Amino acid sequence: MVASTFVDAFRFMPNHVSLLLEKTGETAELAFAALAIGLLIALPLGLWLGHRHRGLVLALGVSSLGRALPSVVLIGLGIGILGVGFWNNTVALVVLAIPPILTNAYFAVEGVDRDAVEAARGMGLSELQILTRVELPLGLPLLLAGLRIAAVFVIATATIAGLFGGGGLGDIMARQVTYGLSGVFAAAFWVAALALLAAAAIGLGQRAASRRMAPRT
Amino acid sequence: MTGWLVAKGGGPVIPDFGQPSACLKRNGWFCTDWLTKHWGDTLQPALVQHIQLTLIAVGIGFAISFLLALVGFRWRLFDGPLGGFTDLLYAIPSIALFQLLVPLTGVTVTTVEIALVSYTLFILYRTMIAGLRAVPDEVLESARGMGLTRLQTFFRVELPLAAPAILAGLRIATVATISIATVAAFLIDDGLGAPIFAAIETPDLFKTELLATGGLAILLALVADALLAALQRALTPWNRLR
Amino acid sequence: MFRKHTRRAAKAAFAISFGVALLIGLAACGGGGGGGKKTTSTAAAKGPKPAITVGTKNFAEEFILGQLYGQALAAKGFKVTYKNNIGSSEVIDTAFKSGKINVYPEYTGVIALDLAKVKAPKSAAATYQAAKTFEQQKRGATLLKPTPFFDSDTFTMLTSTAKKDGLKTMSDLSKLKSFSYAALPECDQRITCILGMKTIYHLKNIKFVPLGNVSVYTLLDQGKATGGDGFSTDPLQLDPKYTTLTDDKHIFGFQNVAPVVNESLLKGGNGTLLADTLNAVSAKLSLPAMQAMNKAYYVNKQTPKQIAAKFLKANGLAG
Fold this sequence. Notes:
Chain B is an all-alpha fold. Chain B contains 9 helices and no strands.
């Protein structure tokens, strides 16, 4: 039964390419907006706290809290406050994207070898220069790891927005009556593919960042 | 339109269903009258169902992950495929996974549980393997030096040292399960997700029900997280960092 | 020192696993395998009564109807379980066919036009007959007596929008270059919905806005659709903020409710009791009664179970 659906899904895909592309675009747009805004909020905060070695409790607390917030609840609250549309889903996803970015930004910077930081301070670099020229490059792999987690999580969760008029591939998955089980499966495939693509892209960045770090010592 | 069917014994008695409170009329976020009236018939049963769903999923998930981790740890050959398998399960969005299982197990709690267990496998398998692998070689050497057998080494050294990581994974898996279980209302009428969905489907959103039920879900997750964190600290006093 | 800790930790790890396994066992036993809504039957000494599984579709009126029929049967000693919120008519029809449920309330027009797909009958009585024949011949089911009230789909709009565009009937919609209509997902395949608008009203440029777990009225309020599928018994239909366009070509059909009952339930000694009980309930469901009950759900925020209990009690059907 599962096998036949599997096969049917692959028959669904070529017949509905424009639909799938359109829906994937909607999901990608939503995920991108959420990640961008999440980065804007969480990255500077996490980096600065890590640099000052302050706010460990905050970083860990936000991480715990973030995991405890069901996406359904956030989307619902979003609709209640902002109404149905693009922004209520975006806000919900931003809230979910912030914890992994914040936590990893914090630990990425905080965990940098103190000696390197002291040396830089000794050379007379300003705090901001230390952050951008020493800590950030060294902490980049861990930071990107956090972004990767956030990206996969946001893309997967964006599908739930489809249950509440959010469009995207989640919309196909919520409408088995229209697209059949094969359509649902096909959409799930494309979601997984999109998530893997995003993870791989960021993973490449991670590897490039680590490689650049290696010969320095 | 009401004429063509003759009602037996005359028309119905329409009881007075009363009037909504002022708070409900303006759709306030915190109508205490509704909360007190419906704690027993709506909120509490949903909470209990949600706890049940979570416990079963995490319990079974933990047991299966443990067995798989034992296999993957003992025979490295299996680790890759097992890891890939659990990764794949997690990559399937919950809505899709529920629907895929329906032809097999129907629109039942079982279907939801299978899906929830699959998601815990992803988190638990990897952390268990990582925890077991993280045991330093020197410790294993000294254990072997002391004459412990492979089995003894495992139960008396590797497993206890991996305990912090395993508990950390259990903590994350539990919180994640509580969160994902809210989506189960897409399929069945159980758990805290059901009142949340119902509230969102009401015209202009039933704010009190949404906030109360959502709040309960978040609270449940935080309490579970705190309890497991306390357990972690109690059992691994030498490993205070997390 | 280290050893003491490791041994403790190891014991704890196992304790956890066994404890959790124990909890699963307890939870599974305690939950009685599933956490579904159950009711217990009152003591009955009238011979073996068949077990009833009442199914309901995915909206409030159905939940209320399910409770009305189910509680009335339970009062007469039947053992009743509920499967609520199963889905659309097509989905619940499948569930009925596969025996997962054996009683459910359905709308005669939906059966005749969307399931049986017969040519639109010209009266409520004809619609009921067509539906009854279909259920008998194609589903091995009996359609019991229909209710006085009817609840059909509508083309609901904000009154302000209708006035602005000068729309009074659905035929007037041809005046618009394009419009959007919000309804449940199965709508664009139904002759009683968008398909009918396209083929019977010959309306073009309809954008379908599938309702994703959000109310039609919420979408209308937020300007997300021109019109939407409000149900004619919804309390907000009486709100002057909303208006419905007249269905002059009658695509929405005649929609009284009648219980679809598996034939096997009506055989045997308790068949007559079962039929009589359900018919007695249906007879009392007038339009004002149903509107009052819908209002109690949507406005007073009472549960379908409470609403049904109160109604049955007031009408001497609670046993």
